[in-house]
Amino acid sequence: MYELENRSQKERTVMNNGMNVVDTQQLLERLARAGSQETGEVSVVTSPGARAAAWTVKVKSHSSYNVYNVRAVVIGDAGSLPVEIGGQMQAVNLAESFLEDGQLSAGTYVIMFRVGEKYVFYAPV
Questions:
Q1: Residue 31: its H or E element
Q2: What's the pLDDT at 41?
Q3: SS3 for 27?
Q4: Sequence-separated (6 or more) residues with CB below 8 Å from residue 13
Q5: What is the mean pLDDT of residues 68-77?
Q6: Distances in Å between the alpha carbon of 83 and those of 23, 36, 75, 97?
Q7: With contact defined as beta carbons under 8 Å apart, do 57 and 70 qualify?
Q8: Interval 8-48: pLDDT, tens
Q9: By residue range, what is the domain housing residue 105?
C-alpha cells in the first residue's frame, strides 16, 4: 500500500490493489475544527467479540410520554414465573411517539438495551 498526494485538490488517495479509497483524514480534520454539533448521527463502537447488552424487563408503570418504569427479571425454567431483581429504572419505548403519552400496559415483558446513556426497548402497543 502506498499513498499519493493530489496537490491541486489537497486530497490524499490511498492505492491498494488497484482500488482508490478516498482518505477520511480530511473529514476527521473538518470535524475536529468544526466540532460535532452539526452532525445528526450516533455511532456505537464495539471491540471484536463485544456484544450489545440486553436485559429482560417487566414494565412496572408509566412515567411520562414514552418513558416507563421497568425492573429487570430473570427467566427460569418453562412453567415458572420470571423473578424480579434489582431496582426500578426508566426506559424509553421507541415504538411510541415522543410527544404523546404512552399506552403500554404494566406487566408487559420486553427486551431492553442500553444505548449511550439511555435504556430503550421497542414494544408496539
A1: helix 25-34
A2: 53
A3: helix
A4: 3, 4, 6, 20, 21, 22, 23
A5: 93
A6: 52, 43, 7, 30
A7: yes
A8: 444 444 444 433 344 556 656 666 666 555 555 555 555 66
A9: 54-121
Flag whether the pTM goes above 0.70. no
Please indicate, yes or no, whether residues 87 and 28 belong to a single structural domain of this protein: no
C-alpha neighbours within 13 Å on the C-beta side of residue 4: 12
The total number of residues written for the chain in this structure = 125
What is the average per-residue pLDDT within 74-85? 91
Rounded Cα–Cα distance for residues 95 and 108 (Å): 14
Q: How far apart are CA 98 and CA 31, in angstroms?
A: 29
In terms of Cα–Cα distance, which of 50, 46, 42 is closest to 120? 42
Q: Cα 68–110–107 angle (5° rounding)?
A: 65
Which pLDDT score, from 0 to 100, does residue 53 have?
A: 76
- Report if residue 43 sits inside a domain: no
Grid cell, residue 27, equals 473529514
The count of structural domains within the chain is 2
